[in-house]
Design brief:
The complex is a heterodimer of chains A (130) and B (293).
Chain A lengths: L4 E4 L2 E5 L6 H18 L3 E5 L8 H16 L3 E5 L3 H9 L8 E3 L2 H13 L3 H9 L1
Parallel strand pairs in A: 2-3, 3-4, 4-5
Antiparallel strand pairs in A: 1-2
Helix pairs in contact in A: 1-2
Chain B lengths: L2 H7 L3 H15 L8 H24 L15 H16 L5 H20 L5 H42 L3 E4 L2 E7 L4 H18 L3 E8 L5 H16 L3 E5 L3 H9 L8 E3 L2 H11 L7 H9 L1
Parallel strand pairs in B: 2-3, 3-4, 4-5
Antiparallel strand pairs in B: 1-2
The chains are: A alpha/beta (130), B alpha/beta (293).
């Protein structure tokens, strides 16, 4: 199943709602990085509200995706980590991400916008639009 | 001593030499724009080579036909032959050119040998073969060596060209990386960047990887070392121009760039660097308005 990538100006939204197979994960990652590079995205929000269980494999996929996106110069925020998921992840001893996490999508976007505002390249865009 | 070789060396020298020279010209690549001086020089070169080869044939002929012990080629002949082979190598001609020239002479000499009534062929024929074999080998070796030296020199100059450190703005350095990064180049890049940082008192350096075709584990490690070193000097580094494929590869290889700032394009990287030194690019009109007021 292809995961839809939604665009909100220069922010991309993805919502992972099922466990991904190996192939799905690869496809999702390359789709996302291509899109980030294409629109020069400044931020990506990965929403996992619908995931009740995150195993170590899924945690790694999310982790890897976040580093890829960060290498392409976009900020990343993970939204909607469920309490139970957070608990299991901590117990597995896995640090989910270096990326920021937010309780829901709204808070995630707030964080993204705040971080983007601190960036340098957003000023260039303002200049170009003048 | 062979009377035939003596004959060819002295009394019939000019006839045989003329034949060889015309064979050389026929076999030479048709560059019509070759200056006359070059042709004349190759003629004198061929004459000297002819004399040296026949001298070697006469003087160094083994007494025993069965003795296969390879004798050293005379020094002057070696030197002549090296020059003979190095010149076409420098001009970028094919290795067949000097060797076929040599073999043309061998054919002429063989014909003479077979046509001669002299009965000492049994000793002369193997000797002729042996000498020319070693000469052909030497020719090819010299050709290869010359080419290799040229390639080494070129790659050195390419390396010099390919790692410029540019002063993009006051206290901002730009290091555009182009081509394959190996250990040696990585060290050179680091050294140059550090020197430039000290010289310009840079605050930010931008590492642009747009021109790096392959980013693998070793390249990433080299980059990390470079970035760590710049951090020790108190500057910040922005990486730019990593392709989507590059980003995927790096992550799948398990390489974490941690808190290194990375931007998709050089443009975004420059903006980030300008922000770090509290500068911005502003339209000229706005400046005029505030300045004129």
């Amino acid at each position: 199943m292809r995961i839809p990538i939604l665009r909100l100006d220069r922010i991309l939204l993805v919502s992972i709602q099922i466990d991904l197979s190996d192939n799905d994960a690869m496809e999702f990652q390359s789709d996302l990085v291509e899109r980030v590079a294409e629109i020069e995205a400044t931020g990506v929000a990965i929403d996992i509200t619908a995931l009740d269980v995150v195993d170590s494999y899924m945690a790694r996929v999310i982790n890897d995706t976040a580093s890829m996106v960060r290498l392409l110069g976009a900020e990343v925020v993970i939204c909607g980590v469920q309490p139970f998921v957070a608990l299991t992840l901590i117990e597995m001893g896995r640090d989910l991400l270096g990326a920021d996490c937010a309780f829901n999508l709204g808070q995630g976007l707030e964080i993204l916008k705040q971080r983007i505002a601190e960036r340098g390249d957003i000023r260039f865009t303002e200049d170009e639009n003048d | 001593m062979s009377s035939l070789f003596d004959d060819l060396r002295h009394s019939r020298r000019s006839a045989i030499l003329d034949e060889w020279l015309s064979a050389l010209r026929a076999g030479a690549p048709q560059h019509t724009d070759a200056p006359a001086s070059m042709l004349a020089r190759s003629d004198t070169e061929a004459q000297a080579l002819y004399d040296a080869i026949l001298d070697a044939l006469i003087e160094h002929q083994p007494a025993d036909s069965r003795s296969t012990a390879a004798k050293d080629t005379p020094v002057n002949l070696t030197a002549l032959l090296r020059q003979w082979s190095a010149e076409p190598a420098r001009q970028g001609l094919s290795p067949a050119q000097p060797i076929s020239g040599l073999l043309a002479l061998k054919r002429i000499l063989l014909r003479e040998l077979i046509a001669s009534p002299d009965s000492s062929r049994d000793t002369e024929l193997p000797w002729l073969e042996q000498l020319f074999d070693s000469l052909a080998l030497l020719t090819f070796e010299t050709f290869g060596e010359t080419r290799e030296r040229m390639i080494a020199a070129q790659s050195l100059s390419l390396m010099e060209l390919s790692t410029p450190v540019l002063r993009l703005w006051h206290r901002i350095l730009l290091l555009p990386l182009v081509g394959v990064i190996d250990t040696q180049r990585a060290r050179q890049i680091t050294e140059r960047l550090l020197e430039a940082i000290v010289q310009h008192e840079a605050r930010v350096s931008i590492l642009d990887l747009t021109g790096v075709p392959i980013i693998d584990t070793s390249v990433a490690q080299h980059l990390m070392k470079t970035i760590d070193a710049t951090r020790l000097l108190g500057t910040r580094t922005v990486m730019t121009g990593i392709s989507p494929e590059g980003a995927q590869t790096l992550t799948k290889l398990g390489i974490r760039f941690g808190d290194v700032i990375s931007r998709a394009t050089l443009r975004a990287g420059i903006a980030e660097a300008l922000l770090m030194v509290d500068r911005r690019i502003a339209p000229v009109e706005a400046r005029r308005a505030t300045g004129g007021a």
